[in-house]
Amino acid sequence: MNEFEAPITDLSHDGRGVARIDGKTVFVSGALLGEQVRLKIRKRHRHFDEAETLQIITPSPHRVEPRCPHFGQCGGCSLQHLDAASQIEAKQRVLVDNFARIGKVEPESWLPPLTDEAWGYRRKGRLSVRAVAKKGRVLVGFREESNPRFVADITRCEVVHPAIGTKIGLLGELVGGMDAAADIAQIEFAAGDDTVALVFRHLKPLSEGDRAKLITFAQEHGFAIYLQPGGISSVHPLWPENPRLAFRVPAGDGLDDVELEFQPLDFVQVNAGMNRRMMAHALELLDPQPTDHVLDLFCGLGNFTLPLARRVAEVTGVEGEHGLVARAAENAARNSITNANFHVANLFEDQRGTEWARKPWDKLLLDPPRAGADKVLEYLPHKETSRIVYVSCHPASLARDAGILVNQHGFRLVSAGVMDMFPHTAHVESIALFERS
């Protein structure tokens, strides 16, 4: 028997409902905490099963109608059926649980959740492309929720920047009319303030006809088109000849005016509005003073480094990718910032012998990838460091590193809270403040 009726007793870290059937945990797509549902098991595993919702018998009072008609089929979002306040509560529960279970620590206070625009916010991402013979056309979109091997058949996306999200169906028609329809592997998008770029990854050289079609599409819809015939270093503009991607952080809310240029495959925070709020929030927590010397690790393009430079005596940014470091330095020069310097270093390897790692930094800002910063915390911070702000994209690694800072380095976890960088998804972005005990 594969169909059951069961109550949903929890919400998993990836946004699925959790049920118990015959003592076994079942993750149920489309179900919410507190609901009674009829479900169908679609995959069995040794310690858990996966299921889909067939019928909502008793709906949650927090259930809402998803805006996107592709919700449930497309795997890009998992929480559109849950109201906004409950989405934040669910993410907060994940953060609380990770601190308690992994880090064995609890903040002295919880920060109010940081939120911004919930629709059309995604300015960076990757669309899969697949020529499907049975459908007689090319699909462009995100992977299917139930089977990630397949591309979801969608025509628009409500969370992607409107310049792109409203034209996903047109992108499918464009690629479908190209000689290279079967050879376009993906389309990456990146939106600056004035330019929206599309990067076409193609497995074989494009014909002159295909190049002409891409240019015409760009001119009609206002895109900058890049081609990627090989690795990242092969990316180059097709039209216009010298497109410029940049975003400005205007003065206000505790920030000074800065502008950051970037390349289409560079890492930038996907949510422009939330990024601005996050930058202001991080600076407020770090409390930079004119005499401070600050170290910004995993600095990327200088997202935090440059605003910090306006407030302190010196700031040093460290990042592992050469291209990002070069552009961070260029951004500093472009903004007439002279007290910021940058270094290339693999922060997952021991860097304690470097000059920047030996300096007595007053304050430290961390913004690591999902793996966290445990390798850095083997030799930093020094005793001179009084305050740390940790920006996290993965609550488990933040919780682990919080335990290291508290139990091994003698810091207090003063405050922490979630930041909704990815509304309608189960992704949890968070921020924490540590002070020397």
From TrEMBL:
Catalyzes the formation of 5-methyl-uridine at position 1939 (m5U1939) in 23S rRNA. Keywords: 4Fe-4S, Iron, Iron-sulfur, Metal-binding, Methyltransferase, rRNA processing, S-adenosyl-L-methionine, Transferase. S-adenosyl-L-methionine binds at Q269, F298, N303, E319, N346, D367. Its EC number is 2.1.1.190. Residues 1-55 form the TRAM domain. GO terms for biological process: methylation. CDD domains: AdoMet_MTases. This is 23S rRNA (uracil(1939)-C(5))-methyltransferase RlmD. One of its GO terms (molecular function) is methyltransferase activity. The keyword Transcription regulation does not apply. [4Fe-4S] cluster binds at C68, C74, C77, C157. NCBIfam families: PRK13168.1 (NF009639), rumA (TIGR00479). Belongs to the class I-like SAM-binding methyltransferase superfamily. RNA M5U methyltransferase family. RlmD subfamily. It catalyses: uridine(1939) in 23S rRNA + S-adenosyl-L-methionine = 5-methyluridine(1939) in 23S rRNA + S-adenosyl-L-homocysteine + H(+).
